[in-house]
Write a structure and sequence with these properties.
single chain; about 280 residues; alpha/beta; Rossmann fold; six-stranded mixed β-sheet; four-stranded antiparallel β-sheet; 10 strands; about 20% strand
């Protein structure tokens, strides 16, 4: 079942620039879906449609099978269902303390004070930020800020979480911790939609992948189906995952056959090498 579905969305900026061109996008409920593209490809613009911040110039958007209504009360309900975490957490965190920041959304839907406190406590626990309630957000590390931004969305009890470049600006350990957190939230039932140009995380975590370039969707498929189209990946100003590129170079330079597709992750590479070694011993 598609929990989000767009049909032929076109979005034009006031100056006439067409940022999205007949975009057809869907996200299967309960999956991790990644929208992969370079900077300026239209990823953020598309995401801002998902909770009604932007309205398409033409085309349609459905959430849970129902067309989006842009009436004020309906938008408030939509934004409880679909939460967006921006690329730069400083654009999202503004309150004097972590607890006040996480409480902002629940307070604005007029929840009782005790319910708000309960949601803040629960959300911070889910992102491993207990004990930071009274800390000013601007004293936190980049990874901690992203966790607090995610907690602010979790406090609204969303069904869908949309994240714009969640690993941007983080060191490898911080990026891994954020992705591990998102996988945990996905296992708990939240549909996760991620915009990224970090191609190395895509085959590890994504169930479904879209490639976008210059406001157009170029391809949809599994990570394997998408990365098999090496010409399209490079046309979109992206690259292959590091491990895939290594096997491509080995194939080209040493004429080693790896079949019609190359491994996308270290675990796949290990499996392929073991199979090749076994076959080599069998026939030699």
């Amino acid at each position: 079942m598609n929990i989000i579905e767009t049909k032929n969305i076109i979005y034009q900026y006031p100056d006439g620039t067409e940022a999205l061109k007949n975009v057809n996008f869907s996200a299967t409920k309960g999956k991790i879906v990644m929208l992969m593209g370079p900077n300026g490809a239209g990823k953020s613009t598309l995401f801002l449609h998902f909770n009604g911040i932007l309205r398409p110039t033409s085309g349609s958007l459905k959430i849970d099978g129902a067309p989006v209504s842009y009436q004020r009360q309906d938008l408030m309900k939509l934004r409880q269902k679909v939460g967006i975490v921006f690329q730069n957490p400083d654009d999202q965190l503004f309150a004097p303390t972590v607890a006040e920041d996480v409480a902002f959304g629940p307070l604005n839907i007029d929840l009782p004070e005790e319910e708000v406190k309960s949601r803040v406590k629960e959300a911070l626990k889910r992102v491993d930020m207990e004990g930071f309630e009274e800390r000013p957000p601007h004293y936190l590390s980049g990874g901690q800020k992203k966790r607090v931004a995610i907690a602010g969305i979790l406090a609204m009890r969303p069904e869908i979480m949309v994240l714009d470049e969640p690993t941007s600006g983080l060191d490898p350990k911080g990026a891994f911790q954020i992705m591990r957190l998102l996988c945990k939230l996905n296992r708990e039932g939240i549909t996760i939609i991620i915009a990224t140009h970090d191609v190395d995380i895509v085959p590890i975590y994504a169930h479904e992948v879209y490639v976008i370039s210059e406001g157009e969707i170029l391809k949809k498929g599994t990570p394997q189906e998408v990365f098999e189209d090496k010409e399209l990946i490079r046309k979109a100003n992206l690259r292959l995952p590091h491990i895939t590129h290594l096997f491509e170079r080995l194939h080209e330079e040493d004429q080693i056959s790896f079949g019609k597709s190359y491994p996308l992750t270290v675990s796949e590479a290990k499996k392929r090498i073991v199979e090749m070694t076994r076959d080599y011993k069998k026939f030699n």
